[in-house]
Design goal:
The protein is an alpha/beta fold. It folds into 2 domains: 148 residues, Aspartate Aminotransferase, domain 1 (Alpha-Beta Complex), CATH 3.90.1150; 237 residues, Type I PLP-dependent aspartate aminotransferase-like (Major domain) (Aspartate Aminotransferase, domain 2). It contains 13 helices and 14 strands. A hairpin with a 4-residue loop joins strand 6 and strand 7.
Length: 419
């Protein structure tokens, strides 16, 4: 960590001065029970408790995903889950449709292209959700059903837009189009409401390091019978990425295509215990409520005579905002200055901007993100907001007054359990 000092001459954000706070949109804060569960010697990978523990994970993972169908575990990040979903359902020359509202939808499409899949992107920018009328038009213009899958990112971690997966399913059903509906829930699972089977999703991908509160390195692909049938039609699938033995293992090692990610599994068990102990509905409500606390503060900060000089949220419509991540703008280079000041002086790390400006552009320094996913509560969020208020004040960045009061009023109000 930088040794930049505060006016007392002592850097505040040092490890000896308390825990740093990583408020980025993943990896998220790891709960103590997860860390404690992982702090153990390596287990036997051929017999004993690890095998029983892994068997116990599958139904609890399916419960979080909202599915009664299949789950496959991969030792990878979310990009690996993207590739696994594509490899098990499509082959070179197949066509996919990608409605995009941020960088990660484009990333998934780029991976498809690298696998020889033909990609059509409907790019709706980075500040608004999908225009489902345009999606409907494109599906209607495909009577031969050349489009084999629609790839939809539920929450795009770059833009913080939360897209309407059930509405996308309805558009596909109205068009009577047989394409698979694939959903990226890497940033949303365990944070925003998601119900795979009820929403008609055929394939869903996610990863361990966000709402599942486990260190990065494990990802998951959930799929239904329709997707399994697509896999069965393929002439070949990479042995490692093939989801069939992972979802239906005859031997323990087949869950993972080899050696198990032992300590991740212990951590994941503890994380799922926390989620199901709180209750999934309560987890969703907590994230919704804390997101509203953050939005209240951000709205107050942005209430200045010249809004162009102050802070603003990337997504103006609250109905389209993620409950797990909030993308924000400040006039460049103030966003980067704020992030650096907070890390150097408070041990508080905010997320960089992704996909909202080219990395080599000066405007890149005008974007940042707040992660509020997983193991977060009211005092953590108020601490995050208090830190930002301190940074805005110290750096003399124009901002409106009363942000912390506005946040506190929302925090003390009733939880919106319908959000």
């Amino acid at each position: 960590m930088s040794t930049t000092s505060n006016p007392t001459g002592r850097p505040i954000g040092t490890p000896s001065g308390g825990r740093p706070y990583l408020a980025i949109p993943g990896p998220s804060v790891i709960p103590d029970p997860v860390l404690q569960a992982m702090h153990r010697p390596s287990p036997n990978i051929y017999a004993g408790e690890l095998l029983d523990l892994t068997d116990s994970l599958i139904p609890d993972l399916k419960a979080v995903a909202g599915t009664q169908h299949f789950a496959a575990i991969y030792i990878s990040n979310g990009h690996g889950a993207w590739e696994a979903a594509l490899m098990n359902t499509l082959q070179p020359g197949d066509r996919v449709l990608v409605p995009a509202s941020g960088r990660f939808a484009l990333g998934w499409s780029e991976m498809a292209e690298a696998l020889g899949i033909e990609v059509e992107v409907l790019d709706f920018g980075t500040a608004s959700g999908w225009e489902l009328g345009r999606v409907a038009e494109r599906l209607a213009a495909d009577p031969a059903h050349q489009i084999k899958a629609v790839l939809g990112v539920h929450v795009d971690t770059s833009s913080s837009i939360r897209n309407d997966i059930p509405a996308l399913r309805a558009v596909m059903d109205e068009a009577q189009h047989p394409a698979l509906l694939m959903a990226d829930c890497i940033a949303s699972l365990g944070c925003d409401r998601f119900e795979m089977d009820a929403w008609g999703v055929d394939v869903m991908v996610t990863a361990s390091q966000k709402g599942l509160m486990t260190p990065a390195g494990v990802s998951f692909v959930f799929f239904n019978d329709k997707a399994a049938e697509a896999r069965a039609r393929l002439p070949r699938v990479s042995r490692y990425w093939d989801w069939t033995p992972r979802a239906n293992p005859e031997e323990f090692y087949q869950y993972f295509g080899g050696t198990a990610p032992t300590h991740h599994l212990y951590g994941l068990r503890a994380a799922l215990d926390l989620i199901h102990g709180e209750g999934l509905e309560a987890v969703w409500a907590r994230h919704a409520h804390l997101a509203q606390v953050i939005w209240a503060a951000c709205s107050a900060w942005g209430d200045i005579s010249d809004p162009a000089q102050g802070l603003r949220m990337n997504v103006t419509d609250p109905a389209l905002r993620s409950h797990a991540v909030t993308a924000l703008h400040l006039p460049a280079p103030r966003a980067t200055e704020l992030r650096r000041w907070l890390e150097d002086n408070l041990g508080l790390t905010l997320g960089i901007g992704l996909g909202l400006a080219p990395p080599d552009s000066p405007e890149w320094h005008g974007h940042f993100r707040l992660g509020h996913m997983g193991h977060v509560n009211g005092h953590m969020i108020m601490g995050l907001l208090g830190g930002i208020e301190a940074g805005l004040t110290a750096l003399k960045i124009p901002h409106g007054e009363g942000a912390l009061q506005a946040a506190a009023q929302v925090l003390g109000g009733p939880t919106d359990r319908q959000a």
